[in-house]
Amino acid sequence: MVLGELCGTKILNVICDWSYNRAYIDAFYTRFFAGGIKGLVEVNHFFDGRVIDGMTNGVGIISFIVDKVSNI
Fold it and tell me: What span, in angstroms and rounded, lies between the C-alpha atoms of 37 and 57?
């Protein structure tokens, strides 16, 4: 009976330790991997919206202005 209780307690302790430490792994993953990827996505969104689309819109506006000026 004592051996069964001891083994059950050890197994329970291992499960509790694993569960307790899992919270640290989840927090680390959320903080560094998910947060890092989210930061990269925000930088990419800014770069695409402001720089790439800005250049495209700038070329379109310049060609429109050149067309209007050349028709005068």
Answer: 28
